[in-house]
Amino acid sequence: GGSLTKLAYYSTVQHKVARVRSFDHSGKDIENEPLYEISVQEEITARLHFIKFENTYIETCLDFIKDHLVNTETKVIKATGGGAYKFKDLIEKKLGLKVDKEDVMTCLIKGCNFVLRNIPHEVFAYQKDSDTEFRFQTNHPNIFPYLLVNIGSGVSIVKVETEDKFEWIGGSSIGGGTFWGLGALLTKTKKFDELLQLASKGQHTNVDMLVKDVYGGAYQTLGLSGNLIASSFGKSTTADKEFSKEDMAKSLLHMISNDIGQLACLYAKLHNLDKIYFGGFFIRGHPVTMRTITYSINFFSKGEVQALFLRHEGYLGAIGAFLKGAEQDNPNQYSWGENYAGSSGLMSTSPDVYPMQRTRSGTFDMLEMDRLERPLVNLPLLKDPSTYIPDTVDLTDDAMARKYWLTCFEEALDGVAKRAAASQPESTDALERAEKFRQKYWNKLQTLRQQPFAYGTLTVRSLLDTREHCLNEFNFPDPYSKVKQKENGIALKCFQSVIESLDSLGWEERQFALVKGLLAGNVFDWGAKAVSDVLDSEPQFGFEEAKSKLQERPWLEDSYSQWLERLKDGPPHKCALIFADNSGIDIILGVFPFVRELLSRGTEVILACNSGPALNDITYSESLIVTERIAAMDPVIQSALREEKLLLVQTGSSSPCLDLSRLDKGLAVLVRERKTDLVIIEGMGRAIHTNYYAALKCESLKLAVIKNSWLADRLGGKIFSVIFKYEVPCK
Known about the structure:
This protein is α/β, with parallel strands linked by helices. The chain folds into three domains: 180 residues, Nucleotidyltransferase, domain 5, CATH 3.30.420; 153 residues, 2-Layer Sandwich (Nucleotidyltransferase, domain 5); 248 residues, 3-Layer(aba) Sandwich (Rossmann fold), CATH 3.40.50. It is built from 24 helices and 24 strands. The chain has a seven-stranded mixed sheet with strand order 6-5-13-12-7-8-9, covered by helices on one side. It has a seven-stranded mixed sheet with strand order 17-24-23-22-18-19-20, with helices on both faces. It has a four-stranded antiparallel sheet with strand order 1-2-15-14. The protein starts with a strand and ends with a strand. About 2% of the residues have low confidence. Keywords: Acetylation, ATP-binding, Coenzyme A biosynthesis, Cytoplasm, Hydrolase, Kinase, Manganese, Metal-binding, Nickel, Nitration, Nucleotide-binding, Phosphoprotein, Transferase. Pfam families: ARMT1-like_dom, Fumble. In the N-terminal section; belongs to the type II pantothenate kinase family.
C-alpha cells in the first residue's frame, strides 16, 4: 500500500491436546482403576498470520520474509496494491522470487468476504459521543449483497453480489488524495496523519458558510437546520482575515466526506442496497474521518442507511492476495476463528487514549486466524439468525458490569495459573509456562480496560475464550483433565442408586426430582469461584449437599409448572437437543437421568458436548466413554444407543459459553433430520451469560444455578438462585 505493507502467511502450529481413551479392562479388577487414560499428544493445526509493517521499514519486512517464510520450493510471491509496482524490483532482488501481481479490487473483495464470513465481530458502526466509540454488528448469515466504498486517492464504489460476482458501479476523483493534496496546499502540512490531527482540533464553522449565515436561522420551508453547511469555505470569500490551519483542515474534511457520503447513499438507493462498508487509507480507523462519513451517510439517507466499518479493513488486500495464491487448498471450505492470544486487536487511534506501541521494526499490528477442524453453521432452530445475539450483557456498553468482570477475571488469574501448572506435575517447565500465561492474559485484561472494543463486543464469553486461547498458547490444553477424570469416576459409582431412588417415586414427584437433580448437578462448576472454593475446601461436598444449596421454589425464574403441564397434557417430543455443561455429577447424575426419562417417553435425544476442553466442561470424547459405562449399567440407555435413539455429537466449540450461530455442521444436519422440537440448554455459561434471550423456533428449556453473587444481585436474586425458563414460540 501507500504507507503500509501488509503481509499474510500460512503456518502450521504444533499444539498439545489432551486425548482420553478407554482402558482395556479385560479380565482386570477395575474397581480402583481410573475411568479412562489421559494422554497429551501433539496436534498440528493450520494458522493464518497477518502482520503490518510501515513502508519505511520495507527492508526489515523483507528480511523477516527471507528468514522465516521462504524455502527452496518458494518460487513466487503474490502481491497487490500500489507497492506491488513500486517495490517490485527490490522484492525480487532481495528475496530471489518472482513477484506475481494480483488485481487490487479482486483481492480487496476476496479479503472482505473472508473477514465478513469468519470474524463474528468484524463490522462496526462509529459513535462519536457514546462511552464506546465502536458499536459492533452481528454478522448476518448471508453477507451479500453489499456496497464497498474504497476511499483511497480517489473513490471506488463496488457492488458485491456473490463470492465472485462484483462490479465497479461508480466513483469519484475527489477522495483521500484530494484531502491530502488540497490540505497540503492550504496548510503546508505534508503528512496525512498530521493533517487529520489539525482537522480534529479545528472548527469548520469559522470557514464554512452555514444555512443560518445565509437565512439568519433555519430554512423552515425546506426543513434545513441553521447549522447545516450551505457552502464549504464560503466565509473565505467575504471575510478579510487569515484562517487557522486547523479550521481549514476541518472544513476540507467535511467537504470531502459529505461529498463521498452523498455519492454512496445515491448508489445504495439506486441499487437497493442497505449495507455500505467503507475502507481505504482515508478511513483506516481514524475517528475523525469515521465520524464525518457516519454523519454524512446518516444525513443524506435520513437515518435509513448506516455507515459500516471493518476491524481488519487494512488487511483486506493482503488477505485476498493470499487467498488467490492458496486457491488449490481452498481456504474458503473451512471455518476460521480469531486467535485472541496472538491478535493485537483494534486500537482507538486517539493518541491520548492509547499511544501506539510500535517496535523499532515498524510492526505494530497483528491478526491470527486458526483453522477450525469442522465447518461451523447456524443452529437451524434459531428463530431469526440475522438478529440472534448470543451474549446477554454487552460489557463494551455497560461500564459497571465491565469493571466488575475484568476485576473478577484478574482476581481469579493466580488460581488459574496455579491449576495449569499443577495439571502437569511431570513437566519441568510447567511453572515457567504458567507464569508466561499469567502475564499474557493479565496484559490482555489491561488492554481491555483501556480498549474494551479491541476484539469486538466485550462479553463474559470473550473474556473466557481469550483465557482459553492464552492457556493453549502456552501448552495447557486441558488443566482440568485429572479433575474431570476423578469426578466422572466418583459420579458413575452413584449412578445406579440415583436411578433406583428416582424409579421408586410417583410420576409427578419424579419429574420434580429430575429437574432438581439437573440443577444440583449444575452447581459443580469449577469456573465459578464460589463453587471452586467449596470444592477445594470440602472434598466430601456431593450431590445431596448441592441439592440443599438450591433456592426453594418459587425460583428466580420459574416456569416449572408450565413445563409439568406440557409433559402431562402434550404428546412426547420427537427429538430433544441437549447442550451439556460440566463433567462428573452434572452430566452423570443430572443430565443422564433426565435423558433416560425423555427416552422412556419416546423422545429421541441428541446430546451435544464441546469438541475441545474448557474449564471442567465435558468434552465429546469424554462423553463417549461415560455413556458407554452408563449403558453397561442401564438397559434404557443401552438400547437407545443401539437403536440410535440416543446420539452423541460435538458442538464444534471449545468455550464454556455457547454461540448458536457457530455450531458444528454435522450437529445442524442431525437436528434437521431428526425433526428436533425441544432444545435444552443448561449451565450459567450457556444459558445465562449466553442465550438467555435467544429466540428459537421450537420449545426450549434454559436452566442454570447462579453461582456468582454479583450476577445474582444483578438479576434480583441471591447466590444459588435458580433459573428455570420454559419457552414456547409464538405461533
